Amino acid sequence: MEDRFEISELMDFYAPLLTEKQLNIMNMYFNDDLSLAEIAELNHTSRQAIHDSIKRCYKQLRSHEDKLRLKEKYFKRESLKENFIKNLKKNNTDNLSNELIEQINKSIEEIINI
Amino acid sequence: MEDRFEISELMDFYAPLLTEKQLNIMNMYFNDDLSLAEIAELNHTSRQAIHDSIKRCYKQLRSHEDKLRLKEKYFKRESLKENFIKNLKKNNTDNLSNELIEQINKSIEEIINI
């Protein structure tokens, strides 16, 4: 099956675009670690149907990322922030206190993570 | 028809989720200012079909925003940044130079706008 870590990351950004049924199946498989057979039984369907559904969800999540790039942008924002803070510490010509640098770091983190 | 300004904002965030055909129609109507009749002629269809298509796109754009809130988050980020910079200027206990504050402002702006 597809890469669990990648799917879990994509779900962080695009889960709201899945249907409730898709979301349930994805959570059972990737968060609750149920087997395809167990999920199939709970949904009164076949193991193959669940397998296909997960494959379709994965394709949808990848397609959303290709179009909107929310995951890529998130990691780019984090990396820009880290470089900015690192440079602030390195070329500290204004003699910023550690507290202030930490405050700037936290504020940017808050802006990224809303 | 729907609010042009709101649609234009929603298009900034969700245009990649529209089909190429939908995108064409929306651009003709909202950016190139063509009339429904003109768009209908160019697409070899009826004025009513174009009207319905624009209505459907608008509904889709609104639904994406309800689910992902990218527009809301963008404006929230901008407002958090402005408050942060304002407070940095107000309680300037570290005697930050104007240049440095401007640099912090620009870096956060870059992080928001990638």
Automatic annotation (TrEMBL), chains A, B:
- Extract the InterPro entries matched here: RNA_pol_sigma_r3/r4-like (IPR013324), UPF0122 (IPR007394), UPF0122_fam_protein (IPR054831), WH-like_DNA-bd_sf (IPR036388)
One protein family per Pfam:
UPF0122
Q: What keywords would UniProt list here?
A: DNA-binding
Q: Which molecular function term from Gene Ontology is one that the record holds?
A: DNA binding
Recorded hits in SUPFAM superfamilies, A to Z, give: Sigma3 and sigma4 domains of RNA polymerase sigma factors
Keyword DNA-binding on this protein? Answer: yes
Q: What does this protein do?
A: Might take part in the signal recognition particle (SRP) pathway. This is inferred from the conservation of its genetic proximity to ftsY/ffh. May be a regulatory protein.
Family stated for the protein in its record: Belongs to the UPF0122 family.
* PANTHER family in the cross-refs: UPF0122 PROTEIN CBO2450/CLC_2298, UPF0122 PROTEIN YLXM
Output this protein's name: UPF0122 protein FYJ33_01570
Gene source species = Inconstantimicrobium porci
